C-alpha cells in the first residue's frame, strides 16, 4: 500500500483492519484515497481502480489460491475417509478431541445416527485414545473425566503381560507400578463402567473397594518385605483377596448419571428409554421431526436438558437458550424472560423435562447465536411457552391437561447431608396435603431404613420442584 498508493503506515493499517474485520464501508472510504495516491505515483487511473477491485473481495471473504488448494485437499481427503472408513474416521476424530467433552458428544451422536456402535471403556481392552474394535469404537480411558494420562499409562504398563482378572488383581498390580495412583481413580473407573467385563455390578465393586484396596496395599507391602528378607526361605504371609459384598446393582438413574458426568454421554442406556410409552401418551414429537413442521406449529417435545445458556435482553431481563436431547437427536429451545422466570428451577442440566411451544425456523443462525462463535447447522428451534418435569405421572397428558397426579407413592431419599434441611422439607410436605403415600429412604452410615410416613401429599409439579431443590433430582421419584 505504501509503494502503490503512498499510504502512511497508519493509513495502510486502517485499510488492513478494514479488510481483516470485513468492513465494506471502511473499504469504500479508502477507495478514493488509494486511487488518488496510486495516480500520484504514476499508475494509470484505470489500473489503480482495477487493483482496488482485486483487493476489495477480501473485505468480504476470500482465500488466496494456495490456501484454497490446501483446504480443498484436506476436505477431499477427510470426505473420502468419512465415506469409506467411517469407523476409523470417527475414532480418530474422538481421539483428537478426547479432552473436549462437547466435541466427543457431538461425534458419538453422529456415530449413533450411522449405526456405529460405541463400546464403553474397559480396563482390559481400552487404550488411551478411542480405538477401533471389531467394527465398533471402544471408548478411550483417557477420555474419562478425572482419570489423568499418567494413571492410564500405569494401567497399560500393569496389564502389558496379561489382562486383569479381578478388582483385587487390578489394585495389586497398579500399586506395584512406580507412580501415584489413588483409590479415588479406581472409584472413578468403576463408576464409568470400566470393570463391567470383570464384575457387571458397579455397586458390588464400589461397596468392596475400601476392603479390596486395603488388602491390596497389605499384599504389596508383604511382597516387598519378602523380597528384602534376610531369610528368603521363610514363607511370607500375604493378605488374600477379600470377597465382594453381595449387594444389588445401583439404580439405573445413578448409573446413567455416572456415565453422563464422567463420559459426557449415555452408553449403558438412555434415561428416556423407559419413558417412551409415557411420552407417546403425551403426544411428544421427536426432535428430528421438528424440521418438517411448518413455522408456528404448536408442539410438545421431551428430553434431557444437556445445556442451559443464560442470556440478557436489551432491557436486562434474564432468558435462556436450552439444548435438549431425546433418543433421535438434539435441538435448541428459547425461553424468553417470562417463561424462564417461571420455569427456571426445572431448566437445569440433566433434568428430564417436557417443553411446550411453537416451531421457529431460521434461515440462518448468526455467529453470536451459537457457542464458540461457530455457525450451527440447526435451522429450527422451539420457542418455549411451558415446561413440565418428565416423571411418571408428572407431565401433562395428550390432551394438554395440567399436571395433577393421581394416587401414587412419592419416594424421597435422605442422606446425612440433608439433615440441615429436614425442617424445610417437612414444611414443604405439610404444605401440600394430598392422596399420595410418602415413603422415606433414610441412609445413616452403612445402614439404610425404609420409613412409611403418616403424611399423605399432593404430588404436583410445584411439590416436586421444591423437593428437587433440597434432595436433588435423583432423590425424588414416583411409583
Number of helices: 16
Q: What's the N-to-C terminus distance?
A: 76 Å
Radius of gyration: 30 Å
Instruction: Estimate the mean pLDDT confidence.
Output: 81
Unreliable segments (pLDDT under 50, ≥5 consecutive)?
Answer: 228-239, 364-378, 399-407
For the sheet with most strands, the description reads: 5 strands, mixed, barrel
For the record, the count of structural domains works out to 4
Which structural class is indicated by helix and strand composition?
alpha+beta
- Percent helix: 25-40%
Percentage of residues in DSSP E strands: 15-25%
Gross morphology: globular
> What is the total tally of β strands?
12
| SSE pattern | HHHHHHHEEEHHHHHHEEEHEEEHEEHE
Q: Strands of the largest sheet, in order across it?
A: 4-5-6-8-7
Question: How would you characterize this protein structure?
Answer:
The protein has helices at residues 2-5, 9-20, 24-40, 45-55, 65-84, 86-96, 101-113, 149-158, 167-175, 183-191, 202-227, 252-263, 276-281, 337-343, 422-431, 461-471; strands at residues 118-119, 131-133, 136-138, 298-312, 318-326, 329-335, 352-361, 380-389, 409-414, 433-444, 447-457, 476-478. Strand 5 (318-326) and strand 6 form a beta hairpin. 39% of the residues lie in helices and 19% in strands. With 479 residues, the chain is an alpha+beta fold. The chain has 16 helices and twelve strands. Residues 228-239, 364-378 and 399-407 have low confidence and may be disordered. Helix 3 packs antiparallel against helix 4, helix 6 packs antiparallel against helix 7 (101-113) and helix 10 packs antiparallel against helix 11 (202-227). The protein has four domains: 2-59, no CATH class; 116-263, no CATH class; 273-389, Nucleic acid-binding proteins (OB fold (Dihydrolipoamide Acetyltransferase, E2P)); 409-478, no CATH class. Strands 4-5-6-8-7 form a five-stranded mixed β-barrel. It has a four-stranded mixed sheet with strand order 11-10-9-12. Strands 1-3-2 form a three-stranded mixed sheet.
Amino acid at each position: 500500500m505504501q509503494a502503490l498508493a503512498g499510504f502512511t503506515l497508519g493509513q495502510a493499517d486502517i485499510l488492513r483492519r478494514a479488510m481483516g474485520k470485513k468492513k465494506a464501508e471502511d473499504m469504500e472510504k479508502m477507495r478514493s484515497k488509494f486511487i488518488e495516491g496510486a495516480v500520484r505515483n504514476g499508475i494509470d487511473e484505470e489500473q489503480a481502480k482495477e487493483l482496488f477491485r482485486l483487493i476489495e473481495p477480501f473485505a468480504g471473504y476470500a482465500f488466496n489460491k494456495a490456501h484454497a488448494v490446501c483446504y480443498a485437499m484436506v476436505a477431499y481427503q477427510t470426505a473420502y475417509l468419512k465415506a469409506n472408513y467411517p469407523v476409523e474416521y470417527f475414532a480418530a476424530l474422538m481421539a483428537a478431541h478426547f479432552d473436549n467433552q462437547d466435541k466427543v458428544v457431538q461425534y458419538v451422536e453422529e456415530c449413533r445416527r450411522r449405526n456405529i456402535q460405541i463400546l464403553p471403556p474397559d480396563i482390559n481392552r481400552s487404550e488411551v485414545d478411542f480405538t477401533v474394535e471389531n467394527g465398533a469404537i471402544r471408548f478411550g480411558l483417557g477420555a474419562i473425566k478425572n482419570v489423568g494420562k499418567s494413571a492410564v499409562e500405569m494401567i497399560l504398563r500393569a496389564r502389558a503381560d496379561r489382562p486383569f482378572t479381578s478388582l483385587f488383581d487390578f489394585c495389586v498390580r497398579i500399586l506395584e507400578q512406580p507412580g501415584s495412583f489413588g483409590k479415588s481413580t479406581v472409584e472413578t473407573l468403576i463408576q464409568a463402567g470400566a470393570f463391567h467385563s470383570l464384575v457387571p455390578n458397579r455397586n458390588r465393586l464400589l461397596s468392596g473397594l475400601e476392603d479390596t484396596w486395603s488388602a491390596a496395599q497389605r499384599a504389596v507391602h508383604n511382597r516387598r518385605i519378602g523380597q528384602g528378607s534376610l531369610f528368603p526361605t521363610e514363607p511370607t504371609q500375604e493378605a488374600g483377596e477379600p470377597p465382594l459384598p453381595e449387594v444389588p446393582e445401583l439404580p439405573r438413574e445413578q448409573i446413567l448419571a455416572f456415565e453422563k458426568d464422567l463420559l459426557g454421554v449415555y452408553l449403558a442406556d438412555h434415561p428416556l428409554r423407559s419413558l417412551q410409552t409415557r411420552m407417546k401418551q403425551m403426544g411428544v414429537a421427536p426432535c428430528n421431526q421438528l424440521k418438517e413442521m411448518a413455522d408456528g406449529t404448536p408442539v410438545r417435545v421431551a428430553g434431557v436438558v444437556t445445556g442451559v445458556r443464560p442470556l440478557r435482553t436489551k432491557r436486562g431481563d434474564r432468558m435462556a437458550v436450552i439444548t435438549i436431547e431425546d433418543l433421535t437427536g438434539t435441538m435448541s429451545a428459547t425461553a424468553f424472560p417470562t417463561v424462564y422466570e417461571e420455569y427456571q428451577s426445572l431448566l437445569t442440566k440433566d433434568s428430564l423435562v417436557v417443553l411446550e411451544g411453537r416451531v421457529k425456523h431460521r434461515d440462518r443462525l448468526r455467529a453470536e447465536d451459537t457457542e464458540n462463535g461457530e455457525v450451527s447447522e440447526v435451522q429450527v428451534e422451539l420457542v418455549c411457552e411451558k415446561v413440565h418435569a418428565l416423571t411418571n405421572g408428572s407431565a401433562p397428558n395428550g390432551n394438554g391437561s395440567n399436571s395433577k397426579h393421581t394416587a401414587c407413592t412419592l419416594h424421597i431419599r435422605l442422606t446425612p447431608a440433608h439433615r440441615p434441611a429436614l425442617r424445610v422439607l417437612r414444611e414443604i410436605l405439610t404444605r401440600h396435603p394430598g392422596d399420595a403415600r410418602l415413603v422415606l429412604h433414610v441412609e445413616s452410615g452403612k445402614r439404610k431404613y425404609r420409613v412409611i410416613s403418616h403424611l399423605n401429599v399432593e404430588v404436583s409439579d410445584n411439590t416436586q420442584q421444591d423437593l428437587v431443590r433440597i434432595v436433588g433430582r435423583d432423590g425424588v421419584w414416583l411409583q
